[in-house]
Amino acid sequence: MRLLTFDAIYAGRTPIGSRASWDIGRIQPVFADVAADQRIVGDVLDAGCGTGELALALARLGHAVTAVDISAVAIKRARAKAVSAGVPVDFVVGDALTLPDYRDRFDTVVDCGLFDVCPQAAQADYAAALHRACRTGATVFMLELSAAATRSVVAGYAELGLPTRTFERLPYLTCAEVGDAFAIGWQRLALRESAMTIRLPGAVEETTVPAIYAEFRKL
Known about the structure:
Elements: H1 2-10, H2 29-36, E1 43-47, H3 53-60, E2 64-69, H4 72-85, E3 90-93, E4 106-112, H5 123-133, E5 134-145, H6 147-159, H7 175-181, E6 186-198, E7 207-218
Parallel strand pairs: 1-2, 1-4, 2-3, 4-5
Antiparallel strand pairs: 5-7, 6-7
């Protein structure tokens, strides 16, 4: 179901318009700050990379980046961007929530909006998958839409006249859920309220919505 849903979103075949609201054509400011502070190190995993803006930005800085997304449509676009820019990124179609093909591989993980679509019952499993995929001491940097953001986005979509049933599966994520998922095998470095930039369907300007920022280090 995730595959069908996200392929449809990236192909523009859903009521939310021709592009995903989170696909703004540049990296989120939070990750720009992390990169500027030179906190991205070693082999990097972009979990749930979408059309690749964050992965490409990190690769341009000289990082070796593997970027995984379940949507073949998104990965096709990301690969085209990489070719056009002449930037080497290993874009992979795969389930970034389980990461079965990686073990003790990465020193840094970036997750921009993947955990926030992870079913609550699978959140700890995702954290465990990252734990397997990372080397000891690796750091995970996360920016996820919060429950407040979901309420804001739903209200915005409703104003556009889109049916509310379209958004019944949107997450209502809390800081506590994020912390609980990474309670075993991880050291919490940061967990706080933040913001994410999105663009609603048909909107000329971007808007900022509440988000959750987190950092965890593998023990």
